[in-house]
Amino acid sequence: MEPDSEGTEAADQVFEEIDNRRSLTGAALVAVALVGIAFSAYQLWLGARGFVFEFAIPGVTTVRLGALSSLQVRAIHVNFALVMAYLLFPGSSGDGAVTRRIAALPSLARDRLGDSPVTRAAEGVRRGVWWLFVDEESTRITPSDLGLVLLSTFPTAYYLTQYDEVTDVIRILGLGGARTFGEVVPPLAALEVGPLAEYSLAYLMGVLAILLVLEATRRALGLLLTLLVSVFLLYAKYGYLLPRDVPVARTFATSQLRWDQIVQNLWYTVEGILGVPVGVSVRFIYIFILFGAFLEMSGAGKWFIDLAYSITGTRKGGPAKASVVASGFMGMLSGSSVANTVTTGALTIPLMKRSGYSPEFSGAVESSVSSGGQILPPVMGAAAFLIVEYTGTPFRDVVIAATLPAIAFFFGMWVMVHFEAAKRGIGGLDREQLLDLGPHMRRGWFYLVPLGLLLHYLVIARLSVGRAGWLTIIATVALIAMVAAYNERTGPYLVGSILAGYALFAVSLASLGVTPIELAYGAEASEFGAVGALSEAASSLPTIIAAISVVFLLADPRGDAPLLDLDDDVIDAATWFDERTGFEVASSRAGQFGSFVLKAMDSGAKTATIVVVAVAAAGIIPGVIGITGLGGSLRALIISVSGGSLVLLLILAGLAAVIVGMGMPTTVMYIIIVVLLGPVLPEFGIAILAVHLFVLYLGLMADVTPPVMVAAYAAAGIAKSDPFDTGKQAFLLSLNKILVPFAFVFSPGILLIRTTDGQGSVLTGADFADLGFFLPEVVAPIVAVFAGVYALGVAIIGYYHTDVRSGSRVWLIAAAVLLSVPGMVLLPASAAFGIVGVDVALYSVTNELVARGVGAAILLVGLVRNRRRAGGDDYEEDESDRRGQRDSSTAATQ
Fold first, then answer.
1. Around Cβ 426, how many Cβ atoms within 10 Å?
2. What is the pTM of this model?
3. pLDDT number for residue 539
4. Could you list the residue ranges that cross the membrane (predicted)?
């Protein structure tokens, strides 16, 4: 299915409103694309070869460019993101307070002085400022942008050339012991004036790096995050001025710090900008964003959306159900609620509206499921990789733990769109409007291969996250190369050549102990048996497929490729190139394949830029907390405010996640909340993985929570609906993202983990065999949370065979809570008994089962009563119709 013109135009308009990136053309567009491709190539090298940059020329020599340390690699990573941010996002559009005043100067001078030299000077100043700094139409790169690009290379260049000073001097003596500019670069000692003479070069480079990160943050992510980070910076310097005789202020008062101490901590250690978040971005986040870009540019996004409609489109409320499936998948790849809403909403929202859903409900469904895509394994959003790093949990375990809660959320969405369809009498689409499932699967079954391989690498082979991402990207490229080279004429030869190449590798391994490629590079031989040789050769299969397919493409670049269906952005980019160069790339299957690879690398870099800038800026916050000792004070304050109540602490943590998440990227929200609240919750015996997933779930609610609700605003723009009503409905539809995390915090069995002394571990065979644990603490909570999600869905929609009355809705909500989170009732009840002097511990596994049973009974009674009432209403309607028919017959007879 293709988006109609209504949906596409609305989506484009919304995207232009919410995305402040430049629309570049010509040489500027090519330059930005080249930087993005270089960024992706750098990350692919890290994924394949690590931090050593060398390559061998077979039979000649090995060229070694150097080996980088972790901090140097991170500095280059951030530098690439800064360059991309300055090129992609304008610094000023001319509507700021300063630029407005400068723009008003010429007219003000003309009114008072006429056409005078002063007026002409004011006009010259205005033109000069606009040329240097202002990009009103977001279509050109200004000289100031190029200046910032140049400046951004200086701190990184210092890291690369003076790293010995960082390790041997700065870490021991501080920035005051480092050399000045003239000492580092003697030929330019004459330029050592002012700050260059007063401060060490390392200090100046650190200050410059921090300011550059703040400016990139302002451009790419807005003023809110920039101000928040700036407040933390000022707090680090001036927090000691807070009065120590005022109770709350005393908690936040710090010892006095010098600027050089702050700068050293934030730029020259792993505690600040180049800390854990950026390290995770280098190792995990970027490579998975790139994988998502390759998969999307291959055409998989379109194929999966069509697949969702083919499977669910004819069902009751089919368009909305397809939106649940398709948006979940696309959100998993994009990692952005807003981008997913705009991308898939262009198709799903108009179809939902035409089928009978209200514009507000259509936008609410799309924004709600789009914001939930980041909790859907196996890819999830960038925050999932931060969870891996902060908790020390293998990504495989994170995927396993996150699976059932994600399914529960999407099940709840399915339930709600189903009952809304039943309430409004909305059917499905005609089969003629949809693609046939069988032919559709035959045309694109291979899109499932990368996801299957990713799961294999992560769950079965247990490779590192970065390595799994790298191998999956290579497999995706090989797959699309094969698809591009395949047609009825070349198919048998292509498959035969691949099999022959695989056999050659296997025989070479079995007989020589190396592959033919390794033999050319002089690798040492190993011993393989027949089975080992076949297995090892299988790991080289993507390389074999890619190499042979590219040979076929070069031999016949203009042959047909019936299975190749790349994303429209790839074809548009190739067509744009052809129009300006006279080549025929877009009409060549070899050209399309090359465009696919380059466009995916470019798209991945552009998507990753915002994430990298966000985690670099967010890294300042834990850096400040660490150097000021604020963490311990906050921990004591939080425990004091919550009064030691787990329920109250969870509610406070949830509110904090939602509030901080408003207008913030998910990764930034996660970092802030985890740094502030993460150390507190495990003290209550909660598994640390449950704590971090809880923060992620609640933070995602911010995208659909009024008044900010960025995803809901985007959906409302496409649906042409009232934004506030759309956001309100999206918030209600997303309440499962509150119910489910509260459920797995109290019952970690839902995450398929077992908690012992506050430490959680994925269930083993012994845990499954321990029925005394498995049935009440795993099976019962899982069944109950799905039942609770069902009850909440019915209550929100207010329909089950007939309209649900207000009183029944309240009882269904109570049933949802008792089924999913009985601890939220039992713990406060115990506290209430304690207030009146009765010491009783109600929170136990047995009482949880009883409470779940009560919730199940309430749900069952409510559903049965509503169904009977619906039957009675139908009977009364039928009787009324029959009476009407009899009266009509009698009247006709008379």
1. 19
2. 0.90
3. 85
4. 24-45, 65-89, 196-214, 221-240, 273-295, 398-417, 445-463, 469-486, 493-517, 537-555, 608-630, 636-660, 667-688, 694-718, 730-753, 773-798, 810-835, 841-864
